[in-house]
Amino acid sequence: MNDATQASAQSYAPDSRNDEVEVYVNGAFFPRDAARVSVFDSGFVLGDGVWEGLRLVKGRLLAVDDHMARLYEGANSIQLDIGMDLDALVGEIWKTLRHNKMEDGAHIRLMISRGVKSTPNQDPRFIVGGATIVIVAEYKQPNAALKARGLKLLTSTIRCSTPDVFDLRLNSHSRLNFIQALIQAINMGADEALMLDDRGFVASCNSTNFFIVRGKELWTSTGSTCFNGITRSKVITLWRDAGKPVFEKDYTLAETYAADEAFVTGTLGGITPVTMIDGRKVGSGTPGPVTAGISELYKAFIGE
Fold first, then answer.
1. Is the whole-model pTM more than 0.90?
2. Domain range spanning residue 42?
3. Distance from C-alpha of 280 to C-alpha of 212, rounded to nearest angstrom
4. Whether pLDDT at 92 is above 80
5. What is the rounded average pLDDT of the residues 61-76?
6. CATH code of the domain containing 154
């Protein structure tokens, strides 16, 4: 991992143990440099598949029921037959963790494609076998230095799609529009892209969900054009349970620029402060007290 990636919202602390981790591919394990899928795999050919990212903390898979529900809902929506039921698939995750002797501090990427095709084309009827299932478990801890300084965001010209165009609640392998948005941000010296919806309201970031703080209020988008974030949902619930106001609403960039604080949420990073948007400081330009308070609530909830 190079210095540039340490500024990413998806960055993590390097861990040499990952060199020895073995990858699960359709029930077998391979060294990471020998793990392979076919060039005719529908995931490689067209991004035809779904995925989940999970964390292992002190022997527990965080929010595993929520993650699996999202995965199977997404697979069902594109008529992808995973080939095993939910409990069996969770069992394969645990098999991967046991195989690699992992008990804490791991991040799991579960990737499922429609499977191998007879020829590289779009039509799902050309599948010649069952689904391809890959599980990559790695030792990953959030980047503490990034949390201390906060993220810099750039508002992208690329919009989040509406459900009639591409439903972001479907956790699909296809991410090209978000990669384009991130490239715009990187080229302008930012860490992550802030993205608007089709009407110009704040929607999401390219890989995380976005919140602003105004006073003691949390504001986030309505959810119609952003990721169905599990950490997002937990944060909303935790803040409301603490008796604090949360608004899932339409709001503008002007209101965002006037925020006291901002942060993003995601499975790996949990809660990461945002300290600059479009070259403007957010609040004082340093991670704020409300974000810190929410982060402590979340850490207590997951048992960190």
1. yes
2. 14-139
3. 14
4. yes
5. 96
6. 3.20.10.10
